[in-house]
Amino acid sequence: MALLHPNQFQVGEVWIAFKLNDAPICTEQDGEFNCICLMDAASCFILGTTLVSAHESELSELEVRRLFKAARAQKNKFPAKLLIPAGEPHTALLSEAQRHGISVARPRKGELRIFTSEARQGFRDYLQGGNEA
Question: For position 117, which CATH number holds?
């Protein structure tokens, strides 16, 4: 896949699924979680997020359907393509994309950094700020 950049896409054309957090999010009551999000590739707008137990290898089918439904509600349509970082186990995401006729590409994580780094940094800052209270 060639070097990717947001200006290569139209809003709503391509979504990116990725893990927003660097390390599991720890809660006293419910344990550790990862935050998975769907982002629009052109605008870098986060369309939806869901938390999944850090002890689960991937999202459940129900969690994926909810995430897609939340993302679709933003523009009332599904994208033509979904980008999922290579090496990440997202069988349910792949199945849901296929169910809606969305093609899937698996670029390396580094190829998605231009899209994801600001969101990941903002999430890190949010979590650190929340820990000060």
Answer: 3.30.420.10
Of 40, 113, 36, 46, the C-alpha closest to 80 is: 40
Q: In degrees rounded to 5, what are phi and psi of residue 15?
A: -110, 155
Block residue for tokens 């896949």: 1
59-89 tens-digit pLDDT: 899 999 999 999 999 878 999 999 999 988 7
Exposure string for 72-81, b = 16+ CB within 10 A, e = fewer: bebeeebbeb
Which residue shows structure tokens 């993302």? 71
Number of domain units in the chain: 1
Do residues 30 and 58 lie in contact, with contact meaning Cβ atoms separated by under 8 Å?
no
C-alpha distance from residue 124 to each of 21, 82, 128, 131 (Å): 7, 24, 6, 11
pTM: 0.89
Location of structure tokens 């369309």? 47
